[in-house]
Amino acid sequence: MPSDIKRVQYAQLARSLRGRPLAELISRATTEPDLATFGDLLHLTAVQELSNTEDAAALSLLNLFSYGTWQDYSGQASGLRLTAAQERKLRALTVLSLAASRRRLAYAELLPALGLQDVRDLEDILVTNCIGAGLVRGRLDQAEQCLLVEESVARDASPAQLSAIAASLGAWLDSARGVAAAVEAALQSAVEGAAAEAAQQAQLAADIQAKREGAAAVHEADAEGPANNGLSGLFADESEMFSLESMGEGSTPGNAARLPKRRR
C-alpha cells in the first residue's frame, strides 16, 4: 500500500480513538517501514490531548519520529523505550535527515549517527530499511565505504525548520523583487533610448528630405535658363539705356542712331 494512503488511513482512524487505543495506533504507525512523515497524526487534537494523560509517552514517541534522530533518542532523558522494529525505523529516518543535505554519506559518519559499530549492521539498515522500504533511492559503494543517494523521501519539517524556510523564502522574495525592479528599470531605459533614437532618425530623415527638395528646386531653375528667371528684362533695360545715351539734344527716337559726319 502506498505510504500516502497509509498516512491518510492512520489519520482517519486516529480521529475516532482516545487514550490507550490511540497510543497503540501511534506505536503501530511508527513501525510502518515506508512511512516517513507523521504530521497528519501529530497535529490531531486527540493526539495532542495525550500530553495530559498516562499515555503521554505516545505523544513523545510521535514527536521523535516526526522530527527527531537516533542521537535525539539516545540523548533523551524521558525514559522513552523503543521496540527493535522502532529502533530500525528511527535509524532509517536518521539517514533521511542526513540525506536531505548531502548525496554522499560516508560510513564513518553514518555509524556514530545511527549508534552502530559494525559495518554489516549499518549496511543491513541501509539496504533493508532505507533502500528496500523505498525511503532512499541509491546504492552502496563498499569500496569507498559510503552510501550514494540519488533521491530520498522528505521528513516532516519542525517548527524551527519552518521558520528558517519562511525566512529563506522571504529573502528569496526580496531578491526576486529587486531583480524585477532592475529589469523593469532597464526595460524602461531601453524603451526611452529607442524612442530617442527613433526621434533622431526621423529628424535626420526630415533634414535629408529638405536638402533634397532644395537641390531639386535649384536644378529645375538652372534647367529653365535666363529667359524665365528675370535676367532677360535686365538686359533689355540696359540696351535701351545705351540707346538713349547715344541720342543728343533734339534728337528723336527715329534718328538717334544717325551720327554727324566729321569734316576733314
UniProtKB/TrEMBL annotation:
Residues 242-264 are annotated as: Disordered. Keywords: Signalosome. This is COP9 signalosome complex subunit 7. Residues 1-154 form the PCI domain. It comes from the Eukaryota. GO terms for cellular component: COP9 signalosome. Belongs to the CSN7/EIF3M family. CSN7 subfamily.
